């Protein structure tokens, strides 16, 4: 299931997760009242890349698709937490804006991957019929 774009996505989600961890550490150190939000952001933001890596070992196309759907849900949740954090105005907008943009781009990449794999899956069904 692995190709160049999935490798790029795996690396991007790994780097994104490291930024999430750093942000959450800052929140925990300086904004204790946002600990619950930080915990949710940490969980969802690091889960995207973990599931992308897990999809590399998918046992079938259906398993791969299921793992990518989890990634999509986690990316959307992460975007929600980042937006909420931005709305609290505890951090400068210019610090969170690049993370929001990256999360949106990762989400688009996941959606594109899902569309492609489903399209390929449907094409192979037609050929084998």
Can you write the helix and strand succession as a string? HHHH
Spatial gap, N to C terminus? 23 Å
> Architecture, according to CATH?
Up-down Bundle
Domain unit count: 1
Give the count of helical stretches: 4
Q: What is the CA-atom radius of gyration, in angstroms?
A: 16 Å
Find the CATH superfamily.
23S rRNA-intervening sequence
CATH topology: de novo design (two linked rop proteins)
| Quantity of strands, as a count | 0
Structural shape: elongated
Q: Which class do the helix and strand fractions yield? A: mainly alpha
Describe this entry's structure for a reader.
The mean pLDDT is 90. The chain is mostly helical. The chain starts with a helix and ends with a helix. The protein has one domain: 23S rRNA-intervening sequence (de novo design (two linked rop proteins), Up-down Bundle). The chain contains four helices and no strands. Helix 1 packs antiparallel against helix 2. The longest helix has 36 residues.
Offer a quick outline of the entry:
With 129 residues, the protein is mainly α.
SSE layout:
Elements: H1 4-30, H2 35-55, H3 61-88, H4 93-128
Helix pairs in contact: 1-2, 1-4, 2-3, 3-4
What are its keywords?
elongated, 0% strand, de novo design (two linked rop proteins), single chain, 129 residues
